[in-house]
Amino acid sequence: MNFRSIVTGGTAALLGAGSVASMASAQDVSLSGETVEYVIPFSESGGSAAWANFYAPRLSGALPGEPTVVVRYRPGAGSTEGANWFQQNQDTTDGTLIFGTSGSTQFPYLLGDPRVRYEYNDWQVVLASGTGGVVYLPPELAENFDGDVDDLKDEFFLYGSQGATTLDLVPLLAFDMLGMMVDPVFGVEGRGDGRLMFERGEANIDYQTTAAYLSNVTPLVEEGSAVPIFTWGSLDDDGNIVRDPTFPDMPTFKEVCEATEGCETEGVAWDAWKAFFISGFAAQKMIFLPGDASQELVDAYSDSIRSVVSADGFAEEAEDILGSYPQQTGDAARNAAEQATSITPEAKQYVLDWLQESYNVSVE
């Protein structure tokens, strides 16, 4: 697998005098003797905890003064409780508080969930991490897939789902756009349970995020009981959906949609799907400083993360946890964060109506 190294917006600008001055001011920052609390709004099990614990010791060694970086867990209310807490602590401006979000923090924000009392525009992003996902079928159904799903539209699919407003919104909306008859079985506790349903024959379509696919589904593919058909894709520097760098030989959902009769890659449905794809996958996990933190601190964190992800051996160390995806800082991270937390009013209303009509789910 080829690991794409860090993508930093404004690379050319780093060679300019203005950026040199900015870097010089960042060098004046020191966190020597301090403890940085790296708060995530989740429990200590799961992907976000693994991501945060992967970065914490590396940040400790890279930040000026080599502070101790400790991961703190504030789970609750689908991650909104921890995000609300961070919003209330925007006066912690000395660099000793950073906050990690995930797609399940972004989705309630995009949907206007009444539990949300946080505002991403008040925060300053210093890292955006993406991931991917792979959709797969049993071999007897996959043989009817030839780049489109036209020959699968008469099939009835069962899918183990955590819920329509979780990250499963992305596959459920994609299946609907493709015209597939997919009946979700809501209430599974995690994507791992959805995979087990597939293995037991209780579901006949599933998707897993990249790390889970590589570790748990690849053996099924090798034994011939599962066949991957497409990925969600990845995002290039210009915001275009391209092939997943971990699975470059697999078509993306965009490619399959373009090849499938009745599926459109423009219009309000597409805008809605892309907004949640970016929020849930292309820029799934992000690290923020409080909005009142100085530019010098933001630059120091950005420079430190840049040094972490560009270090020799990082790609190999990160592969099992982060996959082969860009770890974005600077302008690239800000662009990713803006896309991951933005949706047009029309696309938002489309999703709200779709949730109500398809699953009788109201966000209010």
TrEMBL record:
Signal peptide range in chain numbering: 1-26
Annotated InterPro entries: BUG (IPR005064), Bug_dom1 (IPR042100)
UniProt superkingdom: Bacteria
Keyword field: Signal
Gene3D superfamilies in UniProt: Bordetella uptake gene, domain 1, Periplasmic binding protein-like II
Family to which this protein belongs: Belongs to the UPF0065 (bug) family.
Protein name: Tricarboxylate transporter
